[in-house]
Amino acid sequence: MDDVETVCPVCHDPIYIPVEEYAELLEGDVLECENCGAYLEILSLDPIELVAVEGGEDGFYVLCPRCEHEIAVEAEGESVTCDNCGYTFTPDWSEVEADEDDERDYRN
Ligand SMILES: [Zn+2]
Ligand SMILES: [Zn+2]
């Protein structure tokens, strides 16, 4: 039997899960990506769908448009509140996605 193959949503590296292990997984379980160390929560199993939770090397971060504080984002598509100045806004998610594979040196 083949391993179940999926892709890390953070680093886009393939992740292979042995079938015996896959059979014991439940929705809501958290895996760790061996490549980037991201924690990946299982959203659904058939087909397998993973979402990054905190702890990954580069998760999702957006900059507050008001004070430029860096904010860690948990769920894509939701508005976020800056924990520095309290400003609530909806990030441009297309930009967050596009940045992932490119250089991430926007912090100077
Ligand atoms: Zn990864
Ligand atoms: Zn702010």
From TrEMBL:
This is Uncharacterized protein. It holds the Pfam family Zn_ribbon_LysW. It comes from the Bacteria. InterPro entries: LysW (IPR005906).
